[in-house]
From TrEMBL:
It catalyses: gibberellin A1 + 2-oxoglutarate + O2 = gibberellin A8 + succinate + CO2. It holds the Pfam family 2OG-FeII_Oxy. Residues 207-306 form the Fe2OG dioxygenase domain. Keywords: Dioxygenase, Iron, Metal-binding, Oxidoreductase. Its cofactor is L-ascorbate. The keyword Oxidoreductase applies. Its EC number is 1.14.11.13. InterPro entries: DIOX_N, IPNS-like_FE2OG_OXY, IPNS-like_sf, Iron_ascorbate_oxido_reductase, Oxoglu/Fe-dep_dioxygenase_dom. This is gibberellin 2beta-dioxygenase. GO terms for biological process: gibberellin metabolic process.
């Protein structure tokens, strides 16, 4: 790895923020688009908590009734919230603690090393390159790594961070197993009775999924700045491990609610592809991350995705969406963000 003596670790987010502020001029554009409920305080909520041990441990000591009740709770949360938490999920706390330590080492590297040295297949991202105003800026940095580069031999360049390589592979494997288990349970609940063959999620494996290592630096410039702008996830299912700092908010009803961090729990949320596949029975819910003025925040997210050429089918016909592939969907999202500064997503694909 090249030496970057004397280089600062932080990405130039302050410079980007002030440049966007100057670009907007003095038109009074708010940082956060919450004008519809300016007087409502943000309420902290606890997401539905589901013990999935009967699914992740092989179910040897659990009854069919227990597994059915667990599946029903998952389905109910996916329909009513689009988000839920899981415990006894099979991803060891010691593994997640090790992941957090290695993430901190990674993000403490000089900015130039993160941005230009090709670490983790050059997957480093910071800020929002397409932003045209401060409200479109994500005050964060991340490595968004295809699992094909993390797993097996001949993968990512981790430089001297061999411990990061080992723990990332373990986390990716554990989250992959959990996501696949939950996705199959959710899919089977929507299939016609007596259909014993559930192939979903088809072609979702280590060659198609992603792992994102996130860091949200302290933000001294605005109390309303986004760590991650409001969005929905463009996958089937996301598994998230967050630290104790908090900052995740999701849309429930017509207002934002803050998600209370729960030690040892993982957060799971429905993505756009599962909403489409389920004919809108499962909800891909808009969410965001708010910054903290003094404390940095870390998280790890696993994205369950199919191959780019995979058609996104449906659990039954007719579907409210026209046929499309995952690659087509991703390309349209990127095109819209580049053109308008925001994602449109599933409405583009309505029949």
């Amino acid at each position: 790895m090249p030496a970057f003596a004397g280089s600062a670790a932080e990405p130039p987010l302050v410079d980007s923020y002030h440049a966007l502020l100057r670009r907007c001029g003095d038109d009074g554009v708010p940082i956060v688009e919450e004008a519809q409920t300016p007087s409502l305080p943000v309420v902290e909520c606890e997401l539905p908590m589901i013990d999935v041990g009967c699914l992740t441990s092989g179910g040897g000591s659990s009854s069919p009734e227990q597994r059915a009740a667990c599946a029903a709770a998952i389905v109910r949360a996916a329909q009513e919230w689009g988000f839920f938490q899981v415990r006894n999920h099979g991803v060891a706390r010691e593994l997640l603690d090790a992941m957090r330590r290695e993430q901190a080492r990674l993000f403490r590297l000089p900015f130039e090393a993160k941005a230009t040295a090709g670490l983790l297949d050059g997957s480093y991202r910071w800020g929002t390159p397409t932003a045209t105003s401060p409200r479109q800026l994500s005050w964060s940095e991340a490595f968004h790594v295809p699992l094909a580069g993390v797993s097996g031999d001949g993968g990512c360049d981790f430089g001297d961070l061999t411990a990061l390589r080992d723990v990332t592979r373990e986390v990716a494997g554990a989250m992959s197993r959990l996501a696949g288990t939950l996705a199959r349970v959710m899919a089977e609940a929507l299939l016609p009775a007596g259909d014993g063959c559930c192939l979903f999620p088809e072609r979702c494996n280590e060659t198609t999924c992603f792992l994102r290592l996130n860091r949200y630096p302290p933000c001294p410039v605005s109390p309303d700045a986004f760590g991650l702008v409001p969005h929905t996830d463009s996958d089937f299912l996301t598994v998230l491990s967050q630290d104790h700092v908090g900052g995740l908010r999701l849309m429930k009803g017509a207002r934002w609610v803050a998600v209370k961090p729960i030690p040892d729990a993982l957060i799971v949320n429905v993505g756009d592809l599962f909403q489409a596949w389920s004919n809108n029975r499962y909800k891909s819910v808009e969410h965001k991350v708010m910054t903290n003025a003094t404390t940095e925040r870390y998280s790890v997210a696993y994205f369950l995705c199919p191959a780019y050429d995979s058609p996104i089918g449906t659990c039954e016909e007719p579907s409210p969406y026209r046929a499309f592939t995952f690659g087509e969907y991703r390309n349209k999202v990127q095109e819209d963000v580049k053109r308008t500064g925001k994602k449109i997503g599933l409405p583009n694909f309505l029949v």
